[in-house]
Amino acid sequence: MKRYKSIYVALLLMIVLCISGCGQYKATSDMRLNDIEIGMTRSELESLDLDLVESNKDSKDKDNTKYWNMLTGITVMIKNGKVDTITASKITGRTDENELAKFKTKLGIGFSDSKQALINAYGEPDEKYTDDKKIIYRYRIKKKDGEYGYIAFEMDKKTEHIKVIKLRPDDMIGKNIAYRNKLKNNNQDSNTNTSSTNNETTINKSSDSLSLGGVSLINTDSEITSILGTPLESKTNSDGVTVRKYKDVEVHIANGQIQMIVSNSPNAQTSRGIHEQSSIHDAVKAYGGAYETSEYGNYDLIEYKVNEDKLGECIIRFAVEKNNNKVNYISIRRAG
């Protein structure tokens, strides 16, 4: 009898655990507070059991509504059946700051965290706004659909601690960057400007952009040797590409031409000062918002096209670790 009772208790526990945990939505993108994620459906939001109250329960338009919880200070706007805006802030005097502080971004930043903690996690902001009472840092972040939105952190100017966190799906920052680049193009010399093709910006005639660790794709084989000295290791692959490993970079050579340069340490900087462990936000600030993205394992790949007079199209790649938004490695290569 005791044996059957133990089995019964075990089955009961399994049922309880399944009811409490099975089917609960788990966020996958960086655009989230805990598991409340930009782009999730209304039913997925309701599955989280956050005691959110619909602002107008009598409304028939459930796909365009607002949910909130005065105790935790969370407000969620639903638009066309999906989460459109997430806000964490004190709603009324009933908001418990300790409960509010439990809601964190993917990188662990929440209500009342300091400006320094924010910068340590996200780097310098893509955009910054300040007035007499507040400072707002905005960061461009990828959504679950692969497009970009932004997270805004509003801080008290005196204490420099976060008072409001807002996540929005519109790529306002990307549009602003593209607009600033366009204005910059109109005021720069034709040898250093950027041109728009198919709504994407490609850097033109910028040999300077193709350097990493003090060497460039335009250097000759002998120039690489004179700059970097004797390689620590040299190996020719079956495809005929010779890979020379130096202290800070690897240089790939084929047919007497430099095909690719890859960073090997944080000491290898691009011509615009970006290196391993730089924030991707700093890289985007340095190179602009017109880049292509893809994924490879645990990395987001941020790539810029560069048109060089002699080499043709080349690619600058920043491989970014998904869990910390830091550059893991940099490569500069010919596109062909």
Number of domains: 2
Mean pLDDT: 83
Distance between the termini: 74 Å
Largest sheet: 10 strands, mixed
Q: Which blocks of ≥5 consecutive residues have pLDDT under 50?
A: 16-21, 188-206
Tally of individual helices: 7
> How many extended strands?
22
N-to-C SSE string, H for helix and E for strand: HEEHEEEEHHEEEEHEEEEHEEEEHEEEE
The dominant shape is elongated
> What is the share of helical residues?
10-25%
What is the CATH level 1 assignment of the largest domain? Alpha Beta
Rg, please?
Answer: 25 Å
Could you characterize what this model shows?
- The protein starts with a helix and ends with a strand.
- With 336 residues, the chain is α+β, with helices and mostly antiparallel strands.
- The chain contains seven helices and 22 strands.
- It is elongated, with a radius of gyration of 25 Å.
Short description:
This protein has 336 residues and is an alpha+beta fold. It has 7 helices and 22 strands.
Provide key terms for this protein.
336 residues; alpha+beta; Pathogenesis-related Protein p14a; 36% strand; 8-stranded antiparallel β-sheet; 2 domains; 7 helices
